[in-house]
Amino acid sequence: MELVKVIGVGIVGLIVAALLKKDKPELTLLAVIATGAMILIIILSSMSQAIATFADLIAKAGLSDGLFGGVLRIVGVGYLTEYAASLATDSGSTSIANKIQLAGKVTIFLMGVPVVTTLIELLEELV
To answer: What is the pLDDT of residues 30-79, one digit of tens each?
Structure first.
């Protein structure tokens, strides 16, 4: 049912943005940002149960909390980067959107090094 909420908020946001574009074009980007923020809140509230379940699986497997936290941060950076790049694209700044995406990819790579190192250490212990 969360998807229905997201679609509803998205459609309302599109209508508001389209109406503002005619009369107050400077407010269009604010409507897009507000719509995106509402959608993020809906998504994050529904993800809390999935994150808790994933944390339980990590605990049962005996893996470190640092590994779980690292993966969550990487996923968060990916989502935030995509959101910021989409906002830049919507405002007509494709070049800035590309730079945001590049920065996100580099950040994910750098954040992934400790996660990969931990996984390799775990594999060495198993072998």
So the answer is: 898 899 889 989 988 888 888 888 788 878 877 777 777 888 889 889 98
**Domain boundary assignment for the chain:** 1-48, 63-127
DSSP one-letter code for 13: H
CB 66 within 8 A of CB 118: yes
pLDDT at 113 over 80: yes
Measured distance CA(13)–CA(32) in Å, rounded: 7
> What are 31-34's contacts with CB under 8 Å, separation 24+?
32/87, 32/90, 33/87
CB 82 within 8 A of CB 39: no
